[in-house]
């Protein structure tokens, strides 16, 4: 939901190549971009956490990353978006990196793995992901400190 077209293309191209999938990247990118309207339409709220290393991964190259980071700064200022960054630091006992996951209210969790995509609907498993999200969110920085980390990543790209 918070990715630019170019960044999404870079990610999906890498996944397609890694998994040996058919090349439907353009259609998949279009679908993801079409969904982003809900960031601005309706009463939806988004709470997003990202690892600081994601801000510096260079995926897609320098111009793609600069555009993506600037986009994150803009989206982080939306009133319905809470963006947290899990900062790189030596005391992250409970905030170990986990697979990417998306929680949709209490109905389901989607988990992205190297080999595929899982949809979890069991309430007890959804609760586990909610607990992990809460632990990670408590360790993350939000608001101005998160934007400072994004700005530092932009400045590092020059």
Descriptive keywords:
3-stranded mixed β-sheet, 158 residues, 46% helix, alpha+beta, 18% strand, 3-stranded antiparallel β-sheet, globular
Gist?
By secondary structure, the chain is of the alpha+beta class. The protein has helices at residues 5-19, 25-35, 62-76, 123-139, 144-157, and strands at residues 46-51, 81-86, 100-104, 108-112, 117-120, 141-142.
Structure description:
The protein has 158 residues and is of the alpha+beta class. Helix content is 46%, strand content 18%. The strands form two sheets. A three-stranded mixed sheet has the order 1-2-6, with helices on both faces. Strands 3-4-5 form a three-stranded antiparallel sheet, with helices on one face. The longest helix has 17 residues, at 123-139. The chain is globular, with a radius of gyration of 16 Å. The model has no long low-confidence stretch (mean pLDDT 90).
Average pLDDT rating:
90
The main β sheet shows up as: 3 strands, mixed
**What percentage of amino acids are in beta strands?**
15-25%
Q: What is the CA-atom radius of gyration, in angstroms?
A: 16 Å
Order of helices and strands: HHEHEEEEHEH
Structural class: alpha+beta
List segments where confidence is low: pLDDT < 50 over at least 5 consecutive residues: none
Termini separation comes to 26 Å
Topology, element by element:
Layout: H1 5-19, H2 25-35, E1 46-51, H3 62-76, E2 81-86, E3 100-104, E4 108-112, E5 117-120, H4 123-139, E6 141-142, H5 144-157
Parallel strand pairs: 1-2
Antiparallel strand pairs: 2-6, 3-4, 4-5
Helix pairs in contact: 1-2, 3-5
């Amino acid at each position: 939901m918070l990715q630019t077209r170019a960044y999404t293309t870079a990610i999906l191209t890498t996944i397609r190549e890694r998994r040996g999938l058919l090349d439907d990247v353009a259609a998949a990118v279009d679908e993801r971009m079409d969904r982003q309207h809900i960031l601005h339409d309706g009463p939806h709220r988004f709470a997003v956490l990202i690892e600081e290393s994601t801000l510096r991964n260079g995926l897609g190259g320098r111009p793609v990353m600069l555009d993506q980071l600037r986009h994150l700064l803009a989206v982080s200022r939306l009133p319905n978006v809470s963006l947290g960054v899990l900062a790189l630091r030596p005391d992250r006992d409970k905030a170990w990196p986990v697979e990417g996951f998306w929680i949709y209210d209490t109905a389901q969790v989607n988990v992205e793995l190297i080999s595929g995509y899982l949809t979890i609907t069991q309430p007890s498993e959804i609760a586990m992901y909610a607990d992990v999200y809460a632990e990670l969110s408590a360790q993350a920085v939000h608001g101005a400190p998160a934007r400072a980390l994004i700005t530092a990543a932009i400045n590092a790209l020059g």
